[in-house]
Amino acid sequence: MSTLNALKLVAVKKPASLPAVVQRRNKVLAKLWEQLKLAEAEQAGTHYAPTKYKKLKDAEGNVRTIEVPKRIKPWWFTSESGNTCVALRYGSKVIEIAKGKTAIELFNKQELVTTLTTLKAAIQAGELDSQIDAASESVRKGFSK
Predict the structure, then answer these.
(1) DSSP 81-119
(2) Is the pLDDT score of 14 beyond 70?
């Protein structure tokens, strides 16, 4: 039993599901991770294309699954002033990071990876939960009749 004494044992019940705020945070973090990999590949001069599976039906009616590259649109763009800007997105909606501010301006593209890493840390800490909730509500309104 001395081996088990080195571990911290607790009595805890596994939750049935994650809270909605954590689910939304994880969704943004997953997309941000893709953006980070895309930015790292761009800086290294390589190509990043994750794959997804797609089901196709042939002429005889057989369904087969093929692997196709996933299309990822970069969240960064060049502004009118010539600087690179990064906009954080939740689905199709741009998240308002601060009141009236929807993008982060960078002086050069070398700051892109560090900025995305900083955004990732802020989201993990829960600093943008209220903004993500607002964007989620906006996306949901688009699906209602």
Answers:
(1) TS-EEE--EETTEEP-SBTTB--EEESSGGGHHHHHHHH
(2) yes
d(CA 31, CA 37): 10
Coil/strand/helix, residue 67: strand
| Angle value at C-alpha 100, between 97 and 103, nearest 5 degrees | 50
pLDDT in the model for residue 142: 84
Helix (H) or strand (E) holding 76: strand 76-78
Residue 40's region, left for phi above 0, alpha for psi from -120 to 50, else beta, is alpha
Per-residue pLDDT tens for 89-142? 998 899 999 899 999 999 888 889 999 999 999 999 999 999 999 999 988 888
Average pLDDT of the chain is 90
CA distance 94 to 135: 7
Residues 46-59 have a mean pLDDT of 92
Closest residue by Cα to residue 123 from 108, 112, 133? 133
